[in-house]
Each structure stands twice: as C-alpha cells, then as structure tokens.
C-alpha cells in the first residue's frame, strides 16, 4: 500500500484526475452489481420460504395463485412434491420439493460468495479513488499556494 501511495504521488494532476474518475466509475458499476446480487438473493430467500410453507400444506388446500404481480386466482394445491424451478430465459425444470429447496440454498450460497468477492473489489477500488482524490487535492492546494 505504501508503494502504491508513492506511485500515485508521482502522477500528474491530469493522471490523478483520470485515475479518480476511472475508480469512481468502476465503483459505481460494482455497486450496481452488488445491488443486483442483493435483489436476487432476497428473491431466492423468499422462494425458499415459499417452498417451505408449501411443503407443509395439505393436498387440496385452497389458496390464491398469482398469475401476474397483481392478479390472483383461487386454486387448490394438487401435488406439493413437485415444483417448477425458473432457471432463467423462460426455462423451467421440474424438481422434487427437496431438490427445489436445495437449488435455492445452493444459488443463495453462490450469490453470497459472489457478493463478498465483489464487495472486496469495490472496497479496493474505492480506496484507490479516495487516495487519488486526496493526492489530487493536495497537489491542487500546493499549486494555488505557490501562485
């Protein structure tokens, strides 16, 4: 870290501005990715909770079935041992209830691992941007003071 500080201090004002802008842009993109992962994780956790709830319901139980985000119809539970898993791009795979729960758990674990890795990268990029900004500010203050 000390050697990177020395390298940054050797940069020109223009190089520092470019480095800070690049780091800030990358941090923003990483933050968007982190938000997307967080949203996907919440959806999977909700799906997992729904599967657990569904597995406890008796066959023939009356329930509201969502057709869209705001339209529900009355239905009856037929077989809670088989579920359809949305694997993306319009594809669904039939799984047993236990396989469905396992799928949600594995995907959630993978997303959390990806989140942790991206968070670390974002923190490092933010640190570089902050350091470049601090050195840039110091150089600008020095230029103003010497004029």
Compact description:
The protein has 147 residues and is of the alpha+beta class. It has helices at residues 2-9, 13-55, 97-145, and strands spanning 62-66, 72-76, 82-88, 91-96. It contains 3 helices and 4 strands.
Arithmetic mean of pLDDT: 91
Question: Any guess at the CATH architecture?
Answer: Orthogonal Bundle
- What kind of sheet is the major sheet? 2 strands, antiparallel
Taking Cα atoms only, what radius of gyration do you get, to the nearest Å?
Answer: 25 Å
Strand residue percentage: 15-25%
User: Span from first to last CA?
Assistant: 32 Å
Helix count equals 3
Strand order of the largest sheet: 1-2
Low-pLDDT residue spans: none
Tally the beta strands.
Answer: 4
What is the CATH class designation?
Mainly Alpha
Give an overview of the whole structure.
The longest helix has 49 residues, at 97-145. This protein has a single domain, classed as Helix Hairpins. Strand 3 (82-88) and strand 4 form a beta hairpin. It is 68% helix and 16% strand. The protein has 147 residues and is α+β, with helices and mostly antiparallel strands. The chain is rod-shaped and about 85 Å long. The strands form 2 sheets. Strands 1-2 form a two-stranded antiparallel sheet. A two-stranded antiparallel ribbon has the order 3-4. The chain has helices spanning 2-9, 13-55, 97-145, and strands at 62-66, 72-76, 82-88, 91-96. It has 3 helices and 4 strands, in the order ααββββα. The model has no long low-confidence stretch (mean pLDDT 91).
């Amino acid at each position: 870290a000390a050697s990177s500080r020395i390298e940054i201090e050797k940069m020109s004002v223009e190089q520092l501005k470019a480095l800070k802008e690049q780091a800030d842009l990358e941090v923003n993109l990483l933050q968007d990715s982190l938000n997307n992962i967080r949203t996907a994780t919440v959806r999977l956790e909700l799906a997992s909770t729904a599967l657990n709830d569904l597995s406890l319901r008796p066959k023939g139980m009356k329930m509201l079935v969502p057709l869209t985000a705001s339209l529900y119809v009355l239905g009856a539970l037929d077989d809670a041992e088989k579920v359809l898993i949305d694997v993306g791009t319009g594809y669904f795979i039939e799984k047993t209830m236990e396989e469905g729960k396992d799928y949600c758990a594995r995907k959630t674990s993978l997303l959390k691992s990806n989140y942790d890795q991206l968070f670390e990268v974002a923190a490092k990029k933010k640190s570089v941007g902050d350091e470049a900004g601090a050195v840039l500010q110091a150089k600008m203050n020095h230029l103003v003071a010497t004029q």
